[in-house]
Amino acid sequence: xxxxxxxxxxxxxxVFASRFTGFEVKPRGNSELDVGTGIYTLPSGGTITDNKSGxxxxxxxxxxxxxxxxxxxGATLKSKEGDFSAASLDYxxxxxTLRMNGVRFSSRQLKGITAQQGLLLKEDVLVLKGEVRSSDxxxxxxxxxxxxxxxxxxxLGVFTFRDGATTLRGNRPxxxxxxxxxDGKVRANTRVPVDILxxxxxxxxxx
Amino acid sequence: MQVRRKGYRAPxxxxxxxxxxxxxxxxxxxLLPLWLLVLSSLAWASPTxxxxxxxxxxxxxxxxxxxxxxxxxxxxxxxxxxxxxxxQTKGLSLQAPELRYDQxxxxxxxxxxxxQTPRYRFWAEDSTVKEQVLQASxxxxxxxxxxxxxxxxxxxLRFDTQTGEIVLEDSQxxxxxxxxxxxxxxxxxxxxPLSENLGLTQAAGAGEAPLILPIRFDFDQGLNLGLSxxxxxxxxxxxxxxxxxxxLLGLRLGSPDPVLRLGLATQGxxxxxxxxxxxxxxxxxxxxxxxxGPLFFVHDSEKGRYAFGLKQALALGPFTLIPFGWxxxxxxxxxxxxxxxxxxxxxxxxxxxxxxEGPFRFRLEPFGVLGFYNQPQQYVAYGGQIEGRYExxxxxxxxxxxAIESTPGRFWxxxxxxxxxxxxxxxxxxxxxxxxxxxxxxxxxxxxxxGYAQDFGEVWAQLNTCWNCMGKTLSNGRxxxxxxxxxVGFTPVPLTCTYDLNLTPFLGYDFLRQGISRWGLExxxxxxxxxxxxxxxxxxxxxxPSEAANGRLVFGLEIR
Lengths: 207, 560
Known about the structure:
The structure holds 2 protein chains of 2 kinds. By secondary structure, chain A is mainly β. Chain A is 10% helix and 57% strand. Chain A is built from 2 helices and 16 strands. Chain B is mostly beta strands. Chain B has helices spanning 26-42, 194-197; strands at residues 2-3, 58-62, 65-74, 78-89, 92-96, 99-102, 107-116, 121-130, 133-142, 150-160, 165-175, 178-188, 215-219, 223-232, 244-253, 259-268, 271-280, 283-292, 295-300, 305-311, 314-316, 319-331, 339-351, 353-357, 360-373, 378-391, 395-405, 419-428, 431-438, 443-454, 457-467, 474-475, 478-479, 482-492, 500-510, 515-526, 530-539, 550-559. Chain B has a 25-stranded antiparallel β-sheet that branches. In chain B, strands 2, 3, 4, 5, 6, 7, 8, 9, 10, 11 and 12 form an 11-stranded antiparallel β-sheet that branches. In chain B, a hairpin with a 3-residue loop joins strand 36 and strand 37 (530-539). Chain B is globular, with a radius of gyration of 29 Å.
């Protein structure tokens, strides 16, 4: 029965019209299928690879259901937005969202980010909330919305941003800071253009 | 009592609040809510203070201080604050519509700035802050809490925030837009009142707000009217201070003994000169002093005193040696009958020992004077002071001073009159007791003061007593053996609000002669720039040899 299940899992190439458009599962140990619900459980974790989008999820514990969700604990995820690690991770295919707790994230623009919660959206927008910290540039904030394709990040609420010998602080709960990443430099502006604010701020409310 | 209107509290104002109730005056505490209700009902809307820089929506910590503003654009090199910007650093608070900080050069620039220090407000058209030094041009400065009826206009300003020194170049002092003086260079200590920076008053220290109005207008034995130490600005004055003063006074006008007084005084480094001429119906009198380093000339024609000589203090560790020599004339008892003329030379040696250990202080200062005259006579005097203090939960002071003369000195300059005084004081909360006993005169004086302080002021009572004070004052045709006077009064807290007024009343009663000994009432009113004083004081029964029964109308003006 177990062998059959493993074989079944290895062969399961699911086609999704979303982030995980089709993935390959490599369990680290056993893989169990609850026939009643159709949920696969990998109690020792394993690796899920989406060859098309380049996503690689590796976790100590994984549960997933074809076409619906992937849940993982002690997970790392390599994506085009950057590399994540999370204490727990929940991918829902509809809507195409990836929620994380205890997140660590590094990308080309932002390095060494940690946050209590994270949400990666279909539009390649990452929302981070709760004690958001990054090491390069040095940033402390409560909410951060990262728009990877546009090389922008919007900081909302009280924040501290360090650049060289200077430290910039937003002292009020309604503070805003737009970071533009270009040519290896970070431009910071507290006066965020209305169109950018209207586009990015609603993402923060989704987490 | 204090009536507060349209309150505007000075940034540095601090009120001391005492909460320990005094015996028997709990009714004041009971009435306090009523007082507060009355005061708050009279309070007008107060202008808002600018937001502290640290509380601005956005702040930037820079080596030049904390910058802040409503918005910030920062590309890693240039930070531009807009929508109201500020800079807060040691001793400096700067406001501007926009502020630029260049991180690579460490330079802050701003236009149309306003600078706030504890006592002054400055406006400048252009400014730069670099290495903690502010350079600005197109300056207007005032001490006024609102408006600028008293102001300094200046071409440039340099403010070293580390030393706290401000230098204004090519400036003009204006009162109600009337130019009073010009200064090529004026140095301001932002923590000192303007009157002190301009040299209009001597260094304060008595706690009394400096009086700047050089006009005297009061009435005692007659009308006193004129200019008293009126500051005369010097053309091209480098120090930026008024160092010459003119006195032109009519004293006791309307009385049988009027005086016309003309005086001139000037002061420089290590030199000073003053001369005063009095014209009376009985003739002329003059007094004056010229000091230039160790040389001096001093005279007082009424006392028959003239001296020209030199005196120089030489410090030798805890010892101070003061050699002296002069040619002098003196009337020893104040009449020409006892006139002395001649030469004197000698030295005075003083030793100063001060020990400070925790709340305890001890001071010992013995001295000795040896003088020789152009006569076969010598002068020897010695004595000293010894004092112990405790300054902790309570303050206690005990001191003894004495002086012994071998023979009476010929001139007042070297004379150290024989004394033996024991004095002590005790201060605890609102209670102060002072006592002094003169062994040579067998005279004991004391005063007991009890104060009950509230946030609106202090109600106080003082009992002055003197035993064996025979011959000191005369009343009812006889010498007084004793004095017992009780003075009660109210001292309001200093005016810190604009368009605020208060009243300072006091009333004294002489228990021995059973009558009102003194009374007075002063009204103080604060506008944006000045505190105006109008008061009347009357002594009805003199309590001290220096006092005479008279009334006095006082008018004064202080820079806020």
